Amino acid sequence: MFDVVTGGAGFIGSHLVDTLVAQGNEVLVIDSLCSGRRETIARHIDSCKGRFVQKDLLGDGWQDSIRGADRLFHLAADPDVRQSAVNPDPTMQNNIMATYRVLEAMRQHGVPELVFTSTSTVYGDAAVIPTPESYTPLEPISVYGASKLACEALISAYCHSFGMKAWTFRFANIIGSRSGHGVITDFILKLRKDPAELEILGDGKQTKSYLEVHECVAAMLFAVGKARGTVNTFNIGSEDWIDVKSIAEIVAEEMHLTGTRFRFTGGDRGWVGDVPKMQLSIDRLKALRWKPQTGSRESVRIAVRDMLAEQQHGVS
Ligand code: NAD
Question: What residue's CA is closest to ligand 1, atom 16?
Answer without folding.
Answer: 76
